[in-house]
């Protein structure tokens, strides 16, 4: 039977909103959400929003700016978003050893974002909802959990 590790909200190290510094290409990020929204702006060539995202201090501000990216095309974003989230989280975890250990400690489980409001990156259910215990009753796709589970497995396998 499949085992799950549930997470939700910014206090979880698996959350995109968890505050933790990491650097990519000499750019310092304060959370994986900032990296994701910066990557979104870069993907669509919006330099103005890219700069504003880097200056934004909170994940909430970063997400709001990400919604304003000019030239956004949903299908193009869907082709690239998981790779962007994977790369940002890879840097977040490999540059923060205590967080890396927490991720590795989930070995043998599938990570699940227990967000009742997010049906794309999460499962659209809370952790205490009985429907969360089976993939067949999830209301969302769990893209973030999927990306983190793959990242963890890749790090364990050394790839």
Automatic annotation (TrEMBL):
CDD domains: NADAR. It comes from Paenibacillus auburnensis. Transmembrane segments: none annotated. This is NADAR domain-containing protein. Residues 6-155 form the NADAR domain. It comes from the Bacteria. It holds the Pfam family NADAR. It catalyses: 5-amino-6-(5-phospho-D-ribosylamino)uracil + H2O = 5,6-diaminouracil + D-ribose 5-phosphate; 2,5-diamino-6-hydroxy-4-(5-phosphoribosylamino)-pyrimidine + H2O = 2,5,6-triamino-4-hydroxypyrimidine + D-ribose 5-phosphate. SUPFAM superfamilies: YbiA-like (SSF143990). InterPro entries: NADAR, YbiA-like_sf.
